[in-house]
Prior knowledge:
This protein has helices at 15-25, 52-62, 80-100, 118-139, 154-161, 175-180, 185-192, 224-233, 255-268, and strands spanning 2-6, 29-32, 65-70, 104-107, 142-146, 169-174, 196-201, 207-208, 211-212, 239-242. It has 270 residues and is an alpha/beta fold. The strands form two sheets. Strands 1-2-3-4-5-6-7-10 form an eight-stranded parallel beta barrel, surrounded by four helices. It is globular and about 50 Å long.
Amino acid sequence: xxxxxxxxxxxxxxxxxxxxxxxxxxxxxxxxxxxxxxxxxxxxxxxxxxxxxxxxxxxxxxxxxxxxxxxxxxxxxxxxxxxxxxxxxxxxxxxxxxxxxxxxxxxxxxxxxxxxxxxxxxxxxxxxxxxxxxxxxxxxxxxxxxxxxxxxxxxxxxxxxxxxxxxxxxxxxxxxxxxxxxxxxxxxxxxxxxxxxxxxxxxxxxxxxxxxxxxxxxxxxxxxxxxxxxxxxxxxxxxxxxxxxxxxxxxxxxxxxxxxxxxxxxxxxx
Length: 270
């Protein structure tokens, strides 16, 4: 089983520290969402054009794979200027991914305002993703849509993906979001299994379509082991990535405890 983690769980660490944490805890890869305490990766010195080659070399020398660069790009916004800015950010993150040798950039479908025309919003999303996907193709980077917001369910993701050019975008399956929005793991896989390239693992004690809390894996009520066994049965070969949202929830335990706990918990599911 290939294990990875998002830097959301250790948001203030440097590249060198992240590599050290990954190696000492048995992780093979990471996702970069925040670095050196900065949420906007274009502001991170070691990811700027004059330094990114050296950063890439550090990861390559360590054997730790940079799986995905996690943007917050979403086109579900009625403000055309804001959508244009999302494209700028998306292209910047694709450039960072290409510079680091990462294959993927994460994007969101977003939340659709109930007072807006859904089809009009879908057109904004389709247009934005099509432009970004084409830019990424030229750079050797593929977009991954996360099951999140109004696209938490596999059913909604599939309907969006089927309207985009073939092979332009795939999926990060966050197992909590699809489950808390009413799909069983089997139902989600049946909808988007062929698109899934990466998986986010988290656990929660109290969750519903309206929200969720965060627990250590195995200490909540999400049947994580069932999801892992399903993925193995279906032949999934990618990473199982721990998305410990410390950046957004500072009250949860530090990575020094949650990361090794995750590795031990996941080993019990093998």
